[in-house]
Amino acid sequence: DKVCANEEMVMAEKFFFFCFLLQGVCCRDYSISLPEKIAALSGSCLIIKCTFEIEEKYDNELTEKATGVWLKDGTDVNKKLVFSSLQKSLIKGNITGKLKEKNCTTVFYDLRSNHTGQYYFRIEGTNELKHTFTQDSVSVNVIESPHKPTVQLYVEQKEVQDQEEILEGSSVSLRCSAETLCSSPPPALTWSSTPRIPLSDSSRLQELILISDLNFTATHHQHKDTFTCTITYQLQDKNKTAQESITLHVKYAPKIFSFSSCTRTDAAVCFCEVDGSPSPDLEWHLSGRPVTNSSNTFISEERMSSTVLRSSITLHQSLKHTSTLQCISRNTHGNASQLLQLLPPVECLNLLYVLIGVASGALVVIIMCAITNIYIR
Ligand SMILES: *[C@@H]1O[C@H](CO)[C@@H](O)[C@H](O)[C@H]1NC(C)=O
Ligand SMILES: *[C@@H]1O[C@H](CO)[C@@H](O)[C@H](O)[C@H]1NC(C)=O
Ligand SMILES: *[C@@H]1O[C@H](CO)[C@@H](O)[C@H](O)[C@H]1NC(C)=O
Ligand SMILES: *[C@@H]1O[C@H](CO)[C@@H](O)[C@H](O)[C@H]1NC(C)=O
Ligand SMILES: *[C@@H]1O[C@H](CO)[C@@H](O)[C@H](O)[C@H]1NC(C)=O
Ligand SMILES: *[C@@H]1O[C@H](CO)[C@@H](O)[C@H](O)[C@H]1NC(C)=O
Ligand SMILES: *[C@@H]1O[C@H](CO)[C@@H](O)[C@H](O)[C@H]1NC(C)=O
């Protein structure tokens, strides 16, 4: 019993092996290779890459006279035919592949939204060969406007998210990539920025993806600058565009103070303005000690923008002529400080001028007296 079962198994194996061989050698069947789905821009073209196989016995029918046919949303030749290489049809196009070489690559022109649908290929020979490839079809989607490109931000060669920090001085690469749809001329990518700065970029095509890199070194001037990548298709009647933007967030230590000064009447009033990202803090130091709000000191702060802070200090107190005033600014990326000149009060100066005036007057009188004296003697 057991031996019998074993023999059956061996027989079955041999049979399957035989079938496998047969299929490989002689039983070539109909098949087609098509993309699953493709997008096309309304008013533009579409290329369907396509190759097929037929039963070997019909190979001799694939001559120059063979006809390629496309059916839409069904496989009934009488009702669903939208393109035939033999005659003028509903869709303008051309079979650019050589049917003789089993290449059914097709280009359609001037697509409209009503061309969206499922497309089936059919091959017709000169005699008996007439076959619709119903197993596989391509889904065509006609869109009115192109899809947005994708913008990626790389800092020191590493991809980061938009809001992540870019340190001043680091190398930045903005990469724009977009799928390319059939069009003549082919689409182009361009970079622009606000505020406008000269940009040099280079575009290249990688498979069917168009890529444009913008490389530069981050400076604090670029904080909050917006970079926009635009894809442009030049169609007969109009241009179709789509764009994507990115805003940079550059971090930097407080800069050279853009504005600092003191005026002095009955009280000393000093200003300090500092630029940093993230927005810095500001501290006042009088003769090396930190000063805070108190009865005779008044400190006010004003944020001029997301990065600029202005502070003023009013000192209602007698200051020694050796007193020094300093404003110190900090953020997470560093610190900076500025020494301010505490000029003597205006009244003091006026008194000084009077004294100088009086002294020089007296000197003139003394000299005159001396000269007169000498002359009299
Ligand atoms: C169709 O494509 C072939 C091969 O590229 C070309 O020779 C022919 O001129 C095209 N016909 C039309 C109508 O565009
Ligand atoms: C089929 O024909 C198209 C258009 O002529 C060509 O670009 C493509 O390379 C051909 N494909 C194959 C597999 O030969
Ligand atoms: C699509 O619509 C256009 C008009 O916009 C018409 O001329 C054409 O016959 C339609 N095509 C199909 C396949 O229905
Ligand atoms: C820009 O930088 C990227 C990566 O950071 C690099 O792959 C690319 O070659 C650079 N392009 C130019 C024009 O320097
Ligand atoms: C389309 O864009 C091109 C290049 O950007 C330009 O030269 C042309 O004038 C534009 N055409 C229309 C109709 O706007
Ligand atoms: C100092 O006090 C004034 C009035 O109370 C207030 O407006 C100001 O914000 C204070 N300054 C600081 C730095 O806290
Ligand atoms: C910031 O100040 C501290 C002292 O308060 C100093 O040790 C440090 O070096 C400063 N950092 C920078 C970046 O200036």
UniProtKB/TrEMBL annotation:
Gene3D superfamilies (UniProt xref): Immunoglobulins
Domain of life of the source: Eukaryota
Transmembrane residue ranges: 351-376
Domain Ig-like: 149-247, 254-343
Subcellular location: Membrane
Coiled coil: none
Record-given protein name: Ig-like domain-containing protein
Species whose genome carries this gene: Cirrhinus molitorella
